[in-house]
Amino acid sequence: MKKLLIILHDLSAGGAEKMMARLAKALVDAGNDVTLLMLTGGGIHAAHLDPRVKKVELHSPRSVRAVPALTRFLRANRFDAQLAALTHVNVVAIVAAALSGTLARLHVSERNAFSHDRHVNPDFMVRMAYRVAPLLYRMIPNPVICVSRGVAQDLVDTTLARRQDVTIADNPVLDNDFREKTPGLPRHRWLLEKSGTVIVAVGRLAPQKGFDTLITAFAALPDRDARLIIFGEGALRAELLEQAKQLGVAERFDLPGYADDPLAEVAAADCFVLSSRFEGSPNALVEALSTGTPVVATRCPHGPQDILVGGLVAPLVAVDDPIALAQAIAEQLSIPRDLQRQSRLDAAARFMSASAVQTYLKALIGSPSS
Fold this sequence. Notes:
Elements: E1 3-8, H1 15-29, E2 33-38, E3 54-57, H2 67-76, E4 81-85, H3 87-100, E5 106-110, H4 114-117, H5 124-139, E6 144-146, H6 149-158, E7 166-168, H7 189-192, E8 198-202, H8 211-219, E9 227-231, H9 237-246, E10 253-257, H10 262-268, E11 271-274, H11 283-291, E12 295-298, H12 304-307, E13 316-317, H13 322-334, H14 341-349, H15 353-365
Parallel strand pairs: 1-2, 1-4, 2-3, 4-5, 5-6, 6-7, 8-9, 8-11, 9-10, 11-12, 12-13
């Protein structure tokens, strides 16, 4: 049994937070003693954290101000390996580990395309973290754990990081018995009592996700009775609703907010679409594949090409090309739903918790077993 620590900002609704909560559970399942530490605390995924995972909250008002408390915690508690996630948290963890004498046991992870993600958050301290992180990544003893080959290559190509400064570990997206599970009932009225074709997407209502392109593509579909649901919340809600109104599809478009069980919604849909401009390793795409529902994705950096085996599993289209996206969606809707179902399930299986956790254990402690 190894004593392992995961360091996060909080357990909010982001994909990284969800995956770290799942990773903590998978590490416990593999026979390890796991603590999940939050620099601040709380978040939607806190309630779903496995009770076997020890939870620590520093309640710092900002991540950067958590350095003293995190340093004291690391000095007082010895772990075999420490894993931080997200760039600004990585910087805080590196400083605290250096001050506490635990740098040799610290591992940090990048969850998204660094060259794109660094421009998303306008917060001054977060932008400073992105500036100094690549230099720190060259100096720390352990390679940066990246969620896909594309994220690793992007970090090498666009920063000071070298090839030897990165390694790869898959996200633990799915339960090990996902093939045997029966999806729950959807809650959205268009899916619970279907009267026509329903297309779904899942993600933050942010420019990264390309939902504006998806709405334009949806408006161009030949099926004028089809409906589009985007599950998620974010700053672009009003803009996306206005766009749908301007395109004349407002009555067939819905933004219901976050879904309690997104897999149930996706499983009941006719097609899932990932319209992102960039990703790291899109968990929503893997989850959609696991339901067997037909999918379409953009060939965005990074992740979809790897997950969909270059387009062999499902169509890949250019980023910000609504006409190509509409054509791909229409094509998927025109063929039998189960035509490539097995291929979709097989592609998803790589991201089962039991498989993914072994890649993390190898990266953290040099052994794929506990």
